[in-house]
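Lab notebook, bench 4. Still working through the backlog of constructs that have no structural model yet. Next entry is a single chain of 168 residues. Request: give me the structure tokens for it.
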Amino acid sequence: MAASGAETLERGDPGEQGRLALYFCGSIRGGRQDRALYERIVSRLRRFGAVLTEHVATAELGAGGEEAARGDRLIHEQDLAWLQQADVVVAEVTQPSLGVGYELGRAVALNKPILCLFRPQSGRVLSAMIRGAADGSRFQVWDYEEAEVEAMLDRYFEATAPQHAGVS
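Model written out:
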């Protein structure tokens, strides 16, 4: 699906003409400590497009992930299909997660625009493989404080959304 521009960014199905398809990455099996923050991020992302991976923010999804309902292979295949469909990838990378790192590597290979959000005040140090991949353009890593997450997303999409038109 190719997006036609920022002026058409409103809620709807990701398959609709002019809608950005957004892939949100957040820790699931790596730890759910930031789930409430993920919910805020997904809520804000809906302003800019259709979030393909809203389930990452749901309270019902525990640290065990989705394995009870679906097998790991099906989860992998579905997530890769969504990743291929996505126009933009947004990842909260403060909580270390092998899955998020894998998704980001695949997104780089697919040449997707990527925004990684990291909270230095967490006391963690972001992996050099993530921070070192930042090029200031296609792959961006922004440090932020939790209280400003919505403003950071607004800033990113207001500045870059027209550039993402037709990127997938």
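Notes after review: The longest helix spans residues 72-85. The CA atoms of residues 3 and 19 lie 5 Å apart. Flag for follow-up if needed.
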